[in-house]
Design goal:
single chain; mainly alpha
């Protein structure tokens, strides 16, 4: 009786059906589910094809970076294929010099690794001394086996893993093969970049789409090259300051630490943290007291703080503003997927994707979420002046574009 009265108390109100989102919008739910499945499938495909796709991505970033240098060499009446080879050779020499400056000191550190680990563990035990009462209590709790029957001894099967030498040889062979593939792909991309650009523009059906595609090519080259050159210069001085600080404070092999600081600083947020850990362990293994061991670490923290909060914002300004959350997510994703090399090329790939989003109307919202748009606010013409006469106005820019030239 009470149930009938309760049901009749609200006449005309239809009972709520479950899955309210699914029933009115089945197409939206199906599209969202399909997008999630496609994203997961792409992640699996990128991870499974890492050895094949990683050299292609590195070659793409390298070709975009070296395109201005290749054009500069072509101005001296050098044909395009030799100019592309010279640009790649210049980049290879720079990478080889940086690697040799780091590899030889690192090999000496590896030879002395057992003694250094012992000294670092002794200092770590000193740092853990204030927590010794807590560790003693936890050990006593673990030793209490009240009411637990003794378990019979069991057999332990140990799987023999490949040795360090075999792992190093296999890694070296893979690295050599991938480096050769990157060189060949970069050479072909630099040699055929203009032909590909012209053909891609020719396939666009209308003039506005050709203009948009030409601007995408132009902005990708300018922004990626500007990012690499600007941050390489900043990171060079970060490495120089780190090496001088390590040399002044007595940490061995300051050239190696300067080179590592320069390379790690290309990975935003995570690179400086990794470098702090390496310098901290090396300081603990080198110096006799904790106070002396803390000086190199504090010096690198100060250098990173000045670079991240004063130097980079002043030099870069707001023309390369990217969302810090987007940077963290993208860098961590590519490091998880492709390792340290993926973390280095993560930001150039993000800049390319942002440029494409900024010039594609359906994707402009994603570009705004990633960072500031390329053109924030168009300039407004003063009263009595035509908008086409204002420099920087999109109408004036479009009016000045010749019919046969799009960049």
């Amino acid at each position: 009786m009470k149930r009938r009265q309760r049901d009749s108390a609200g006449p005309g109100i239809a009972p709520r059906a479950p899955f309210l989102i699914v029933e009115p919008n089945p197409q939206l739910v199906a599209a969202a589910s399909l997008a999630i499945l496609v994203g997961l499938a792409m992640c699996v495909a990128l991870w499974a094809a890492k050895d094949y796709l990683l050299p292609i991505a590195v070659a793409l970033v390298l070709s975009v970076l070296l395109a201005p240098l290749c054009r500069l060499i072509e101005r001296f009446w050098i044909p395009r294929p030799p100019a592309a080879f010279l640009a790649l050779a210049t980049a290879g020499v720079i990478v080889w010099l940086a690697f040799s400056a780091i590899a030889q000191p690192a090999s000496r550190w590896m030879d002395d690794a057992p003694q250094l680990i012992k000294r670092a563990s002794r200092h770590l035990q000193e740092l853990q001394a204030p927590l010794k009462p807590l560790t003693d209590i936890s050990n006593q709790v673990e030793d209490l086996n009240i009411g637990q029957p003794a378990t019979p001894p069991s057999r332990t099967v140990v799987m023999q893993e490949p040795g360090l030498a075999q792992f190093v040889m296999a890694s070296a062979q893979t690295a050599v093969a991938q480096t050769g593939l990157v060189f060949i792909l970069s050479l072909f991309l630099l040699n055929t970049r203009e032909d590909f650009r012209i053909k891609f523009l020719a396939f666009q059906p209308t003039l506005p789409r050709r203009v948009r595609a030409a601007r995408v090519f132009r902005d990708v080259s300018r922004r990626v090259t500007g990012y690499i050159v600007t941050f390489a210069t900043i990171n060079f001085f970060v490495g120089l300051a780190t090496g001088l600080a390590c040399w002044r404070l007595g940490l061995p092999e300051p050239l190696m630490w300067g080179g590592l600081a320069m390379i790690c600083n290309f990975i935003p947020f995570l690179g400086p943290v990794i470098m702090m850990g390496l310098i901290g362990l090396a300081s603990l293994a080198t110096f006799d007291t904790l106070l002396q061991a803390s000086f190199p670490l504090l010096a690198f923290i100060a250098i990173s703080f000045v670079e991240a909060n004063l130097v980079t914002p002043t030099i870069v300004g707001r023309r390369m503003t990217l969302n810090p959350l987007a940077i963290i997510l993208v860098v961590s994703f590519w490091i998880w997927l492709w390792g340290p090399v993926g973390g280095i090329i993560a930001l150039p790939l993000l800049i390319m994707f942002k440029v494409i989003c900024d010039h594609t109307p359906p994707l402009q919202g994603i570009g705004i979420l990633i960072g500031a748009p390329l053109e924030r606010t168009p300039k407004i013409a003063p009263p009595g002046i035509a908008p086409d006469a204002v420099p920087g106005n999109p109408a004036a820019t479009a009016a000045r574009i010749p019919a046969a030239r799009f960049d």
